[in-house]
Amino acid sequence: MQSLNEIEELLQGKLSENEKEIQKYAKKIQKVEDSKKKADADLLTAESEVDVDEYNTAKNAIWSADHAKELYLKQVGKLKKAPLISRKEYQQLLAEITRSADSEHEDQNNRAAKLIAELKEISEESSQTWQQANQLMHLVQREVYKEPEGKIPAISGGTTWSSDKTYNNNETVHGFYQLKIKGTPLAKRSGETEEKRNYPSWI
Fold first, then answer.
1. What whole-number distance in Å separates Cα of residue 196 and Cα of residue 57?
2. If DSSP states are collapsed to H, E and C, what string results for 41-70?
3. CA-to-CA distance for 26 and 22, rounded, in angstroms?
4. Contacts within 8 Å (CB) and 24+ apart, 156-163
5. C-alpha radius of gyration, the chain, whole number
6. Which of 102, 134, 136, 170 has the fewest CB atoms lying closer than 10 Å?
7. CB 102 within 8 A of CB 1
8. Residue ranges of the chain with pLDDT lower than 50?
9. Are 118 and 24 in contact (CB under 8 A)?
């Protein structure tokens, strides 16, 4: 099986050969156009000098140049429109591109799965950090600072409501993993299994 790079090299080679052929005839067209310009000038000279032989020679040269250009233009048209490979080769290349791309993606997916497995470990650490931060906030608020629940005196006077302090951070590995990776085919490939966990409301 050819790699995608090898297939690309093959296709670019065919395009390059085709372009060389087109350029070959483009040069021929330029050459006959130059010949016709000279023949046009020779025709005017022969006409002014009433030189029949030179006149006929110039006329023939113009006729030859016109027909040569017509032929070369037709060939260029064929080269631009004609397929560079057969239909069978076309179908084979499509199938080979698919197989090669699938193979490369399989390798990439396996490599990515290893990274995702590492990311899952960091995500679990991130979740533990989140839980620990919340536990510590609860500890310092309710156990150490001993702030009661419900209505409490406000610093500015009056009263305010004492709600549980919670840790907030929108940029965590755990949050990223849960939103973007968890449950995806790559996550499952990395070894992720279905988990039924009751996360606290702040996760």
1. 96
2. HHHHHHHHHCCHHHHHHHHHHHHHHHHHHH
3. 6
4. none
5. 40
6. 170
7. no
8. 197-199, 201-203
9. no
